[in-house]
Amino acid sequence: MPGENLSRDEARERAELLSVDGYEVVLDLRSAVNEAEPAEGPRTFRSVTTVRFRAAAAGAATFADLIAPSVNSVTLNGRELDPAAVFDGSRIALDGLAPENVLVVDANCAYSRTGEGMHRFVDPEDGEVYLYTQYEPADARRVYANFEQPDLKAPYRFEVTAPEGWQVWSNGAEESREGLTRRFAETAPISTYITCVVAGPYHYVTDTYTRGDLTIPLGAMCRKGLAKHFDADDVFLVTKQGFDLFHEIFDYPYPFGKYDQAFVPEYNLGAMENPGMVTFREEYIFRGKVTQASYERRANVILHEMAHMWFGDLVTMKWWDDLWLKESFADFMGSFGLVEATRFDQAWVTFANSRKAWAYRADQLPSTHPITADIRDLEDAKLNFDGITYAKGAAVLKQLVAYVGRDAFLDGARRYFKANAYGNTTLDDLLSVLAEVSGRDMAEWSRAWLQTAGVNALTPVVTCDAGGRVTELAVLQDGDELRPHRVAVGLYRLDPDGSLVRYARAEADVAGARTVVGELAGQEKPALVLVNDEDLTYCKIRFDSVSLATLRTHLGSVADPLTRALCWSALWNLTRDALMPARDFVSLVLAHAGRETDVGVLQMLHAQVLTAVDHYADPQWREQGGKVLAACALQELRFAEPGSEHQLTWARFFAAGAATEGDFQLLLGLLEGSARIDGLEVDQELRWDFLLPLAAHGAIGDDVLAAELARDDTASGKRHQVRCLAARPSAAVKDQAWAAVVESDALSNALVEATIAGMQQPSQRDLLAGFAQPYFAAIEGLWADRSIQIGMDVVRGLYPSLQDSQATVDATDAWLAAHESAPPALRRLVLESRDDLARALRAQHCDATAGEAR
Fold it and tell me: What is the mean pLDDT of the segment spanning 716-732?
């Protein structure tokens, strides 16, 4: 990987020298099928690229980017260059440039099994082959020679020859076809990382979007094996709703012609905003019954990627430092668009409870960074697709809307698009238009919110008189950087019907360490004070003692869903920060989760409370806590409305936390049909959810898993089976899983992920203890030998976090001390894992201390 890196300084120097007029990319993909795997090396395809570009200095030297097993020829301005002399495996050296240049590169590029470059997938169900490309941040060079950086935009023409019976798509519409060869329309100027090719025998559905004189052809596709599950009508519905909204608020017509959306196998990301050819992970096609939260997540991703057509594709950051210029805006617009234009009008509840949890974690890691980050190279860029760039950035934009006003914010966006269409921008370009339309000092706002790291905590302090009236309500702010916050502060009381409702509210600009909210003086004494009511700003909410006591007994009585979500989020942050014992959070979930009406919040609570027991609870209490949770889950499962999404959610939670022989027997009975819970349909996806804990606890044998794969002999079924096989409680099984992931590169990215997930079972700490030392011995070599995506998956996934002791922290520190020269991205991953483990140990200490005190 180090040889494939590109630094910001190199990119800046190349951008000052070059401007690119256009690409012609010719790909021959017929080798994807009907050929035996080569005896040595990877399976390859032919890629011929013609690049027309200008140089600011005659005679200058530069380089083009290409990662390929071999290069057949390189021609610069008609001059044949020796591939062996100019190509080093990742770069093609170019010298003697003319003012106007033509570069032609004929290469043999490799199909990928890691989800990077041209990914090749063979469907085990029918043997069909499917291809798609994925490039961000810099993997287009695995498919064709180019200048791989976002600020060297150019128009593209693709020509693709594909096997008989295949369909092929690219960013532009198909213009002509001759035999097996398709030629696609030239694109508008775009960056390399959002070019795209999708090819194979995909199931394809079409529709059309119209608005006035504008007509956009729509398409949606998936593997043939998923066609029976593909609800394309709902995908098109959300797509049209998104286009209606964005055309109205952006006042700039969609600029890329057609709009295809491909749901593709073994995808590393949620989705990718390739203009005219958006790609999604195929798990957004649901093989079984799911809750509305799943449909909301898919709709959010559809709108997120659509927002990128403007924020990112039409106007693109110059370098990855300003990645937030696209990702933060798209993340914000995903939730904004759901509320404004679709049936998912509670999306801000999901944002407050789920997306921001991702941001809070990332912002407390040692690798935290400002939203406008310092991205030195491509490895930095890859790791900065994180909770800060996405969710914190989106939360800060929500704060910005409160700060400058919705109308000014949208007016600024419109001016930004029109001023910078098809160009590249930096932070200053956006701030200047926002300052112009709002009249606000955006420089100070930017310094506080975009150019500093960390999260503030806001705590209310309430003083009341003898008559029970508020004499003063102040908000205390802590954190390394004290920021300006526009917040709403809500006062809540218990109504006679038992509901906890708001009776007073005030907005205030919190600044500095202490701010008095004068408007709330004279109000009756509150049972609950909620700072950041309505979730206007990005902060951790704390509670005064009275409010915390109220929530312990009445959280389930909070009437408003967003208020409940904010309270749950705050309580989880207290647990993560070792300010509340894990068993107290478990008690809150036991007492109040059964009354949670928002199924997305409920699913998040289930994930959090399992983490609380598995990682944050006193190890001496862990087994007891698990049994209590499983008993609660079973009770709520039996009480849930038959056939409801809440019933399904409790069923999955029960399976995930199954802890006793009785639990396992019930799961087996539900699988075999000898047990039944009224209204619960055990479809194929739920069957795999039940089989995983049974496999992990040794309650079923290999024959059961083999039979289940025969029942579900699909790509999805294979991933589930691999996960279950790796979960079995056997030392030999763990050795096999380790060897498959660490000592071999035969598995695809999806099966690497499944193997790691199955191997790392919290109930198997003793079985996994022996892998801590080999982990530290292997990761540097693995990072050097594998693609960055696989490196990230293995380094994160196999870190010995289940060996939760100071000895593991010490071993991590020893590795860091001995590997100061290791790649910064690798060190960052290890540091982040160490921090998660140290946090867990602090939480365990807090919980153990509380347990002793009781």
Answer: 97
Q: Which of 67, 91, 7, 822 is closest to 378 using CA atoms?
A: 7
Sequence-distant (6+) residues with CB within 8 A of 137 are: 193, 320, 378, 381, 382
Q: Which two tokens stand for residue 114?
A: 């890691």
Mind telling me the catalytic residues? 305
Residue of 76, 33, 34 lying closest to 55 (CA atoms)? 76
Backbone angles phi, psi at 687, to 5 degrees: -60, -45
Q: Give, to the nearest 10 degrees, the angle between helix 788-797 and helix 824-853.
A: 20
CB contact at 8 A, 60 and 97: yes
- Whether residue 799 contacts residue 827, with contact meaning beta carbons closer than 8 Å, is answered with no
CA torsion, ordered 528, 534, 537, 539, to nearest 10 deg: 40
List, in sequence order, every residue forming a beta bridge with 488; answer none if it has no partner: 507, 533
Angle, in degrees to the nearest 10, between helices 772-785 and 731-742: 20
How far, in Å, CA of 646 to CA of 208, rounded?
A: 36
Using alpha carbons, select from 254, 132, 110 the residue that is nearest to residue 201: 132
Using DSSP, state whether 17 is helix, strand or coil. helix
What pLDDT is attached to residue 3?
A: 67
pLDDT in tens, 480-525: 899 999 999 999 999 999 899 999 999 999 999 999 999 999 999 9
Q: Which long-range contacts (CB under 8 A, 24 or more apart) does 185-189 make?
A: 185/157, 185/257, 186/22, 186/155, 186/156, 186/157, 187/155, 187/156, 187/157, 187/256, 187/275, 187/276, 188/155, 188/255, 188/256, 188/275, 188/422, 189/153, 189/154, 189/155, 189/422
**Per-residue confidence band for 2, with pLDDT thresholds at 50, 70 and 90:** very low
H runs (alpha helix) in 58-134: 83-86
Instruction: Identify the helix (H) or strand (E) that includes residue 112.
Output: strand 100-112
CA pair distance 72, 144, nearest whole angstrom: 13
Using DSSP bridges, classify how beta strands 167-170 and 174-178 pair: parallel, antiparallel or unpaired.
unpaired
Q: Look-up: residue for tokens 């479809």?
A: 683
227-269 pLDDT, tens digit each: 999 999 999 999 999 999 999 999 999 999 999 999 999 999 9
What one-character DSSP code corresponds to residue 255? -
CA distances, 716 to each of 684, 748, 754 (Å): 10, 13, 11
At residue 479, the 3 state secondary structure works out as: coil
In what order do the strands lie in the sheet containing 485-494?
A: 500-510, 485-494, 528-533
CB atoms within 10 A of CB 269: 14
Alpha carbon 354 to its chain centroid, in Å, reads 12
Cα 69 from Cα 88, distance rounded (Å): 10
210 phi and psi, to 5 degrees? -130, 145
Q: How confident is the model at residue 380 (pLDDT cuts 50, 70, 90)?
A: confident
Listed residue (538, 548, 399, 535) closest to 462, CA to CA: 548
Residue 538's beta-bridge partner residues? none
* DSSP codes, 177-240: EETTEEEEPPPPSB-GGG--EEEES-EEEEEEEEETTEEEEEEEEE-GGGGGG--HHHHHHHHH
Q: Count CA within 13 A, CB hemisphere, residue 761.
A: 29
Write a three-state SS string for 501-518. EEEEEEEEEECCCEEECH
Torsion on CA atoms 215, 221, 226, 227, rounded to nearest 10: 50
pTM for the model stands at: 0.95
DSSP 310-367: TBTTTBEESSGGGTHHHHHHHHHHHHHHHHHHSS-TTHHHHIIIIIHHHHHHHHTSTT
Distance CA 718, CA 710 (A): 10
- Segment 663-685, tens digit of pLDDT: 999 999 999 999 999 999 999 99
User: Which whole-number Å values give the CA distances from 478 to 241, 249, 454, 538, 850, in the listed order?
Assistant: 41, 37, 11, 13, 25
Evaluate if residue 532 carries a pLDDT over 60: yes
